[in-house]
Amino acid sequence: MNKLCRQVSIESPASAASGQRFVFSCDVPVPDVPSRGARIRVVCAGACYLPRRSPSLGSNESASSFSDETSVLTSDVSVEGDFPLAQPHQHGMRDASLFPGYEVAGQVEALGDEVLVDCGFAIGDRVIVYPYEGVPPGYVEYLVVPQLDYLIKIPDTMPLSVAAMLPAGALLAMNTVFSAHEHVQNLLSERGEDSICNILIVGTGGLALWALRLAAYFFSEMKERVGITIASLKDDGLVAAQEFQKVNVVQWNEDLYERQLIERTMDACGGQVDVVIDFGTTSRSLHRSLQCLGKGGVVFVIRDVADRLLPKFSRRAEERHQSIRPVEPGSLEQLNELVELVGSGKIEPPPHTVYPADQALDVVQKLCHSKIQGRAILRFYPAD
């Protein structure tokens, strides 16, 4: 009989409103090692804020058994601070879409029997897992990868809690900044030497804080010609953004009238902006972003959000001569570069807090009420 390991399944916190449990811990079989892959002992797992389209995770089912993808999201959620409500599921199924567990860092525990001696990996190596298509959802102590290409070694000086933030949130923010950087370069080239480009980053959770740091690094060669403003979705985001570096910050207080928020934002930006990176995308925030965007401007949004909101906003953007561009999660090459930048200290990671995995219930409750600044990391083993 296979040995058992611990798994944590997190259902939509919306279930708590009806008094239902929404965090489940169970034992599942330790997965077999793929012949050409590896088994990773997960030490840290990031509490991902990216909704994952996957089947719900049953409390008695192995995390390695899922590969199909179906949406469990409602029509209007924020990937940054608000938690999506789960749609009704089949009896006995748990919604694990909120925290898929694919931001993981750990150690190589076993290698497949067909792995070559000179493969570049050894038992005990500290690694992160690239979020490849079909990566198993759910927090589990042991994760298998079918091939070693999905593994990236991390420097000995990098804490595993920091490394766990890189494969999903930080990588997505990096690819978004790359896309914006290319657009800004073309824009400044067209406008001439004395032109200026204004960028608005919406949100102050982990995604936006990563984007701020990455933008500061990749736009450093043109910093005199690029202005960056943060539209904060919550009070602690104001402090986090201002502590990092001197940037314009405007608070999007949802209690204000829409026109007031738009005017406040354009005052902070010095007028309409050329680029919006929107990580807090609800229908309302995207509408506001388009109102703050000038003619010919671009809004960059996450692919999942674009799939949901483009049908509603594409015509409106076209009428205003604007565009909404979906951003993919990011490439393996970008993740390698990100590891080097963070490991060398060229980019400082956002604040994060580490919690034991058995406190997942408390962590989710705190996240629901914005009581955790930056990222939340679950720890299975004290390996650092």
TrEMBL record:
The keyword Hydrolase does not apply. SUPFAM superfamilies: GroES-like, NAD(P)-binding Rossmann-fold domains. GO terms for molecular function: metal ion binding; oxidoreductase activity. It comes from the Eukaryota. Residues 19-378 form the Enoyl reductase (ER) domain. It holds the Pfam family ADH_zinc_N_2. Keywords: Metal-binding, Oxidoreductase, Zinc. InterPro entries: ADH-like_N (IPR013154), ER (IPR020843), GroES-like_sf (IPR011032), NAD(P)-bd_dom_sf (IPR036291), Zn_alcohol_dh (IPR050129). This is Enoyl reductase (ER) domain-containing protein.
